[in-house]
Every structure is written in structure tokens, then in C-alpha cells.
Design brief:
The protein has helices spanning 7-28, 41-59, 63-85. The chain is mainly alpha-helical and 89 residues long. Helix 1 runs antiparallel to helix 2 (41-59) and helix 1 (7-28) packs parallel to helix 3. The longest helix is centred in the last third of the chain and has 23 residues, at 63-85. The protein starts with 6 loop residues before the first helix and ends with a helix.
Amino acid sequence: MLKKNNIAIGLLAGLIVPGITWLIFGYILKNQAIIFNKPAIPYLLAIALNLFAIKYLFKTGKDQTGAGMILCTFVVMILVFLLQTGYLR
């Protein structure tokens, strides 16, 4: 998947799936897509996909890249929580 093993690549890779989800659901659908009566489900699915990628990175020995992805995933998770609860509106 990735040739280098550093935190910066992990940070960038960790932003890909949540960024695409935010683009699709935030701008194109304007947060009108509510799944199971929960508006944060698409973002939580993006976080879950990141967690599977992190598991793969740690299994293949790319610990630094996995650590960067973990950092990015936690930041995205906190932002989703704060935005959905109304603290950052």
C-alpha cells in the first residue's frame, strides 16, 4: 500500500476517507441524509474504515504510519462528536 513509514503519511492517509465522507454528506447532500435516524452514522462509518486500515498497517509493520492514522482518526472522532452535539455551531 505505502512505501514509506512515517507519521505525516499516516496523517494524510487518515484524512482521505473522512474527507470524502464530509464532502459527500456535508456539501453535496447538505447533511440531509440521515441513516437510522442518526445524522452522524456516515462519519462513524468513515472512522470505522480508518480503523480497519490502521489494523492492516500495524500487521504489515508500518507502525509510524499507523500512529499517524490513529492521531487523525481521534481528531476526526472528536470533531464529529463536537459538531453533532452542537458545541461547535
